[in-house]
Amino acid sequence: MKILGISAFYHDSAACLVVDGNIIAAASEERFTRKKFDSSFPENSIKFCLDHSGINPLEIDYVVFYEKPLLKFERLLETYLAYAPKGFKSFNKSMPIWLKDKMFQKSIISGLLNNMFQLSKSYWEAKLLFSEHHLSHAASAFFPSPFDRAAILTMDGMGEWATTTLSIGNGNNLTIKREIQFPHSIGMLYSAFTYYLGFKVNSGEYKVMGLAPYGVARYANRIKENLIDVKEDGSFRLDLSYFDFCTGLTMTNDKFNELFEGPPRQPESLLRQKDMDLSASIQLILDDIVLKICKNLSKTSGEKNLCLAGGVALNCVTNSKILKSGYFDKIWIQPAAGDAGGAIGAALSAYYLALGNYRTPSLEVNEPQDKMKGSFLGPEFSQNQINYELENSGAIFETVDDDKLFDLTVSALAGGKAVGWFSGRMEFGPRALGSRSILADPRSPKIQKLLNLKIKFRESFRPFAPSVLASDALEWFDIEVESPYMLLVADVQTSKRKKLSQEEEKLFGIDKLNIPRSSIPAVTHVDYSARIQTVHRSTNPRYYNLLSKFKEITGCPILVNTSFNIRGEPIVCSPKDAFNCFMGTD
Length: 586
Known about the structure:
alpha/beta; 3 domains; about 35% helix; Nucleotidyltransferase, domain 5; five-stranded mixed sheet; about 15% strand; DHBP synthase
């Protein structure tokens, strides 16, 4: 049974191929087009999935789209009617697009597939199925997980109507039990603050999370008293008079500005203490709501395991709070938790829910025990392909065996250099996990500034993540579980921390930035936390061997790992992308 899952037309389009319930290939369209968060039909991703698996288009049994466009149109129309005549400008802008294209997506998708494969629209229409947005998220969280049964929590900006869902997964069944509907959305609340803080919605939320430890949550009560009413079970309602996302062209309005004493921060302008305090406040509110939801979900479901997906599940600070709460024994987070991962969920929901196929949880001996294959689901390149692309790019290069490669790389890293590491299959999801990564020595007090300003060309406050050999993680970090997808944070162990002077302790806000806090300062955030990736031999042996070599030479089993791209550009996909990115930095 061969099923093609597709996510498209909103942001971060992607395709996934599932064969007999196994995830064979998956990739985001942006990696091929080099257009960040590309929302176009994922033609390149589809071609990759089929080429990689050697499958002919005629062999595809079903194509599954990750949401139901007509339900989304219903929500849009009802929202505009509810707020009329307010929002006419936004209505006037969006309706022609819906009436021309989006309402007829069955016909459009079939036509696009026909253009690709010349098999007629009617042929593809007969194979086309539609999942629902949050069902796709829930399926992407539960079915690849190592659990036979689990509670499932999905949270994002919005789907068709749902913004938060609570589900139960058991074997090959998945049932949504409760949901919170648009316009009440914790994802939209967090995005409203992302917008107000001068960052881009749907991509700048990471920045808010990274900025939060520099601030004090002095606005938290103001948010709770004015913007959102949260019940003890975690259910919530927004006061919509402060927001403009229902009908307007912005996230917030003048009433929101008045509440927080000023207009939104201008993008790229100097960060103020107020911005850091707002970040700390909204992060605290998010943590509080999600923990209340999880406490109630644990109590009412009786489940011991929790699966997470949806854009909010990429907030690794909140994920770690869930883990530490003890409400669930184990949690598993879909590494492509955003809309791209909906392609996986769409295909798996069809395989298990629509077609009723039998499911066995992962029985692999090696950790991590899930079915995502380390999230290494994208393209890989042979030595001949690499040589060809580099030669055509005018690169001067040398080819060496792995032993010499590891020696050269470790020597460069220990010498204070940043290294572009391109190896094996590309990761699926927003995190680089050791296949398309920029690496550096975490012991260097200068490397964070160097990477942010001279190589990544991004804000200096952004923290970097450590890759650590799984067997050494507990010695360096306060974490006792695997974190293969860089979706949990943990504190650096007290024994590795540096004692601060009285003057350093008094520093406030962004002034904390350049103070080394541990023996691995490049990956230690100002609150002593780190967003950890535990590296396993079973999923990425070459990267594991590089880390092992670095440990052998330096005694440190950790590397700085950030994505191989510069600001505003998708993570590199091909050798040509890698070379161009490398040559475009310092």
